[in-house]
């Protein structure tokens, strides 16, 4: 007797022995931003079962780098695959992750009021549109390079808004960006004559906010990392930031320096640890699961 065992049948048979990986969903959305005077674009990751669970979820804002967009973390950063795997393995809770787009360095720079739009338009929109836990304990943030810079600024300015933060290769340069950094060429920091404005950088960098942060009582745990061969010397600048934070909150800041440059491989490799770190401080999904029918 001949037995024909198709590839499809093989997949079914394999599935009988290994549970399939849970799979979240990523979708792209826009909404009108009054602050920006244009549509605000973002991608959102919804965990497996979101549609029918009725639960409210912890959520994360994951910020892209300089001259990037809302697609970077999905296309280059393997965010969906990483989130699926970590949730499936129980390393992070089921969570919603918002990956917004910005034409600035997440600041109210010369080109657009990106920070104001983030807090006044994006966060209220996400709270109203998706089932997320709308409290500090339900909200975390992270980002890479310029998005790491934005992350640091946001939590130091608004510690009441975030339970934890992850700054991956943060472009938080002191006193100004190195000559090879795109910060020197980005419209956010270019004056009317098109020249980099060091006073604007100093006004918007984390050094302008850290003293006020230390003077209040709320602590935001922070994960910081960098590649050891980072072409912008972020291993050094990250260590300076780490020391500033460590003096204030020694038990709530971490620094990792790994092999690599200022590159996607570093961020893909370290995203799992960063996610585990921030979500360890976040609330769990809230609500009651629907009862299964007999």
TrEMBL record:
Keyword Signal listed: yes
Listed InterPro entries: AB_hydrolase_fold, Esterase-like, Mycobacterial_A85_antigen
Top-rank taxon, per record: Bacteria
GO molecular function: acyltransferase activity, transferring groups other than amino-acyl groups
UniProt entry tagged with the keyword Cell wall biogenesis/degradation: no
UniProt KW keywords: Signal
Signal peptide positions on this chain: 1-18
Official protein name in the record: Enterochelin esterase
